[in-house]
């Protein structure tokens, strides 16, 4: 091959140059599109990324004790002074149960009914017997009136010597006998009416009512089961319909070592901490020091009352009681609002976490209480407040509680 032919082979034809230029243009366009899509995805995911936050619950400001010195700490449990397993007065079969766990009942409210077939029949029998006794009295009174007329006629005839003394005595005896029968029938009416009253009471005993207002914490019987006020043995007879607790009677009972009981005084101020809410300090006071010691544990029981009632306090919760040194210092008036960590308030707002989403809430700090801020409005007790990564939050930001 000549040199001229080799040069022709190595040269690029015009159509190949145009094809190469077109391919490069489409490659550049594709790369630019990928860059734009990537940038859009980056901005999208940056704006909607899930932020990990730590949250705390807003606590009642009124339930925070001061910094008084403690002379003693003791552990115990929340107990209810009024708690009852409600049963029937008599043994019977359960007809209806009208309660459920967690339900509030008022004093005298119907909780369950028993089968009243037998007591209804007895009541009807007693009412029929009372009615029969009343009719006997009416009948005997008619007979007595007739006997009295006969006796009067015999006395008139005796006065005119037209009858015998025996006839008069017989008429008078009839009068006396009928009078006695009326007295007996009246006594039968009293007996029948009292029997009816007994059967009516039995009917009322088939209705099981709440002895006091409270919350049902256990439902123990179902329709069709046999219930008895005493244990009948075995597993087929229930001894109660359910258990109710008067939540207003909740208090803490703690065991204090007998070596330290001299530090506890009546009406002494206390600070109660529940195991379930370790950051919640509840003011209390000593109700009573039980005047006996447990020789096996060398402890004395002390009853402590809650100053503030709260629905979060439940029976049998573990509690720790801190006895305050100055027993004569009255507790401060309850504060309004809620307490949140001061670090959670940024630029006049906090972030409330609900259903995995942040919500900016404008607040005003009333005062600093230690490391907390007291806020009187726009926040409720129990709301979850974010305490970190606040600069990454805004209303609508998805969050993950850590």
Rg over alpha carbons? 45 Å
Strand content: 25-35%
> Which architecture of the largest domain does the CATH hierarchy give at level 2?
Beta Barrel
Please tally the β strands and state the result.
Answer: 25
Number of helix segments?
4
> Residue share in helices?
25-40%
Q: Kindly state the mean pLDDT as a whole number?
A: 83
Order of helices and strands: HHEEEEEEEEHHEEEEEEEEEEEEEEEEE
- The CATH homologous superfamily of the largest domain is named Efflux pump adaptor protein, beta barrel domain
Estimated structural class: alpha+beta
CATH topology heading of the largest domain: Elongation Factor Tu (Ef-tu), domain 3
CATH class type of the largest domain? Mainly Beta
Largest sheet data: 6 strands, antiparallel, barrel
Strand order of the largest sheet: 4-14-17-16-15-18
How many individual domains?
4
Instruction: Please give the alpha-carbon distance between the first and last residues.
Output: 80 Å
Question: Any idea what the shape is?
Answer: elongated
Short description:
The protein is 32% helix and 33% strand. With 402 residues, the chain is α+β, with helices and mostly antiparallel strands.
Describe the structure.
About 3% of the residues have low confidence. The protein has 4 domains: 79 residues, Beta Barrel (conserved putative lor/sdh protein from methanococcus maripaludis s2 fold); 97 residues, Beta Barrel (Elongation Factor Tu (Ef-tu), domain 3), CATH 2.40.30.170; 66 residues, RNA polymerase II/Efflux pump adaptor protein, barrel-sandwich hybrid domain (OB fold (Dihydrolipoamide Acetyltransferase, E2P), Beta Barrel); 89 residues. It is elongated. The longest helix is centred in the middle third of the chain and has 43 residues. It contains 4 helices and 25 strands. The protein has a 6-stranded antiparallel beta barrel with strand order 4-14-17-16-15-18. A hairpin with a 4-residue loop joins strand 16 and strand 17. The chain is an alpha+beta fold and 402 residues long.
């Amino acid at each position: 091959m000549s040199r001229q032919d080799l040069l022709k082979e190595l040269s690029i034809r015009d159509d190949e140059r145009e094809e190469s230029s077109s391919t490069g243009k489409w490659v550049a366009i594709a790369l630019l599109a990928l860059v734009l899509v990537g940038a859009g995805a980056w901005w999208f995911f940056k704006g909607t990324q899930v932020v990990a936050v730590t949250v705390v619950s807003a606590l009642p400001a009124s339930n925070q004790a001061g910094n008084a010195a403690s002379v003693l700490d003791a552990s115990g449990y929340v107990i209810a002074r009024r708690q009852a397993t409600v049963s029937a007065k008599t043994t019977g079969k359960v007809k209806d149960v009208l309660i459920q766990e967690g339900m509030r009942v008022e004093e005298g409210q119907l909780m369950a009914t028993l089968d009243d077939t037998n007591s209804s029949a007895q009541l009807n029998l007693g009412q029929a017997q009372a009615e029969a006794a009343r009719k006997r009295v009416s009948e005997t009174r008619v007979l007595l009136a007739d006997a009295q007329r006969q006796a009067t006629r015999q006395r008139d005839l005796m006065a005119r010597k037209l009858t015998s003394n025996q006839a008069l005595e017989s008429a008078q005896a009839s009068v006396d006998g009928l009078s006695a029968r009326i007295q007996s029938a009246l006594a039968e009416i009293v007996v029948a009416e009292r029997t009816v009253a007994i059967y009516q009471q039995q009917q009322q005993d088939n209705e099981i009512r709440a002895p006091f207002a409270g919350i049902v914490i256990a439902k123990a019987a179902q329709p069709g089961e046999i219930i008895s006020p005493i244990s009948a043995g075995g597993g087929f007879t229930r001894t109660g319909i359910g258990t109710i607790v008067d939540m207003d009677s909740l208090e803490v009972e703690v065991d204090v070592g007998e070596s330290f009981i001299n530090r506890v005084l009546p009406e002494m101020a206390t600070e109660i901490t529940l195991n379930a809410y370790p950051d919640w300090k509840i003011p209390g006071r000593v109700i009573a020091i039980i005047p006996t010691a447990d020789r096996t544990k060398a402890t004395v029981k002390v009853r402590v009352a809650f100053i503030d009632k709260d629905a979060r306090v439940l029976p049998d919760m573990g509690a720790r009681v801190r006895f305050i040194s100055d027993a004569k210092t009255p507790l401060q008036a309850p504060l309004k609002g809620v307490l949140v960590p001061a670090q959670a308030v940024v630029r006049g707002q906090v972030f409330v976490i609900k259903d995995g989403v942040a919500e900016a809430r404008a607040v005003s700090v009333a005062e600093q209480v230690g490391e907390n801020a007291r806020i009187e409005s726009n926040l409720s007790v129990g709301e979850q407040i974010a305490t970190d990564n606040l600069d990454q939050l805004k209303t609508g930001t998805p969050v993950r509680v850590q």
